Here is the input.
Amino acid sequence: MKDIYVLIFFLISILTNCNQESKAPDEPIKVICNPSTAQAVQSIPSGEFTAHLATTPIVIDGCINDGSWSNANWYSLNYVWMGDEPDNTDYSGKFKILWDSDFLYLFVEVVDDSLHTTLSDGIENYWKGDYVEVFLDEDQSGGEHRYNHQAFAYHVSTEGHVIDKNTKEETEFFDDHVNVIRTQEGNKNFWEMAIKIFDSQFEETSPNNTPETLMRQKKIGFSIAYGDNDGKNSRENFMGSKQTHGINNDEGYINADVFGSILLVE
Ligand SMILES: [Ca+2]
Ligand SMILES: [Ca+2]
Ligand SMILES: [Ca+2]
Ligand SMILES: [Ca+2]
Here is the structure.
């Protein structure tokens, strides 16, 4: 009799895991939940985007099947900021944006032939890829932000960490700012994020920072990029959402003047 219970338990375990492989810490969930679509991808050289309000909840699970995502445009993440023009097996990227009062949501789809985990070459090389970089300037003030928080350059790592420099000029994890789940299907990686928007009053030593409440017609300084490292200990490509990004297309981590923007609409 006991053997039957063990068998039933075993069968239930298999059935409940059939859509999802077991997940070790810091590894992507491998799922089939992001079917290819024929939806057009818009390239916007100015990097000035529009985001619609999410009218249904967005579950951060690396799957695009939340109803609101189908109302969002795909935007191109294929401007070459560094390196030669990659072919579309080496790299190709696109993203969607949504918002509600609490979060800015991003869904990023990246084709990358060789996924190089961000921190595998040590924390000091976090900016060499692979990673998604999200540039945010809450009040679109522009200006210098390298070691202050009037704007952020979140390096979202393959491991799910959110990395930027702090006011002591050190590398710091700001994991509480971005809830991210990455899923992987073959050579495609899907990064779904819910991002809290902090203003320039953010204090890294305070436990009481309050994110901005987002509203219609708000405009946020924004760009997004992908650093593609295919194992040569370098960022072989840096690909962005905007045609240019300052000096050598690499000014975003210092100067928010070069960012594009997002306008929040209904
Ligand atoms: Ca989702
Ligand atoms: Ca690649
Ligand atoms: Ca600012
Ligand atoms: Ca890569």
In short: The chain has one domain: 26-31+39-265. Residues 112, 114-116, 130, 228-230 surround calcium ion (ligand 4) (CB under 6 Å). Residues 109 and 190 are 5 Å apart (CA to CA).
